[in-house]
Amino acid sequence: MKKKILIINGHPNKDSFNFGIAQAYKEGAESSQAEIKEIVVSELNFNPNLKYGYQKRTELEPDLVESWEKIKWADHLVWIHPVWWGGLPAILKGFIDRLFLPTFAFQYRDNSVFWDKLLKGKTAHIITTLDQPSWYYKFINGQPSTKQLKKNTLEFCGIKPVKVTYIGVVRNSTQAQREKWLTKVKILGNKQK
Fold first, then answer.
1. 29 with 36: CB under 8 angstroms?
2. Phi and psi (nearest 5°) for 189?
3. Is residue 193's pLDDT more than 90?
4. Which of 41, 113, 115, 178 has the highest count of CB atoms within 10 angstroms of its CB?
5. Exposure string over 7-37, b if 16+ CB within 10 A, otherwise e
6. CA–CA distances in Å: residue 59 to residues 99, 152, 165
7. 160 phi, psi to nearest 5 deg
8. Per residue in 159-183, pLDDT tens?
9. What is the DSSP letter of 2?
10. Whether the predicted model's global pTM rises above the 0.90 cut
11. DSSP structure string for 62-84
């Protein structure tokens, strides 16, 4: 049975190295006969502001409805994004805020502090670019974007396991280094990890 992979690119700039990473992962996954769908968050037409929080439902724009169908379809979600100020780009954060909602991704239980995880059975891989060494981001800065996306979003909703690959230092990297990273990502795609 072919694995169904959804690649979610959260970088707002089409000229970024993140788009090369997404393409490399896609090529690797296609070579393993996986089914691939993609979401390029910056191409979606939606308001990233969850204006009322969970007090009042904001209707989803058509692009978000289609994105949610892709998320439900996928076995494996590949999240590609840069780390900016220790976190996710605003457009990617808004995408998550608008889609990973109660009754969609999780459900609070009545009169309880616990919740039901509605995305169980899916796995994920976060591939994130850094302008600092990964050891510094992990051990000195505490990897805030990874904790936010992996622990507080994906695992909160039942997606497990969630693997993480750090790519960096991207700033001032050579073409040879970038080609090496792209080869690594293509292998990850081929292994569907």
1. yes
2. -65, -40
3. no
4. 41
5. bbbbbbeeebbbbbbbbbbbebbeeeebebb
6. 10, 24, 34
7. -155, 145
8. 999 999 999 999 999 999 999 999 9
9. -
10. yes
11. HHHHHHHHHHHH-SEEEEEEE-B
- Paired tokens of 55: 């007090």
pLDDT, residue 183, reads: 97
112-162: pLDDT as tens digits:
999 999 999 999 999 999 999 999 999 999 999 999 999 999 999 999 999
Let me know how long the chain is: 193
> What residue ranges do the domains of the chain occupy?
4-190
Q: Indicate the helix (H) or strand (E) that contains 19.
A: helix 17-31
Identity of the amino acid at 73 = W
> CA-CA-CA-CA torsion for 102, 106, 121, 12, nearest 10 degrees?
60
138, two tokens = 């992990």
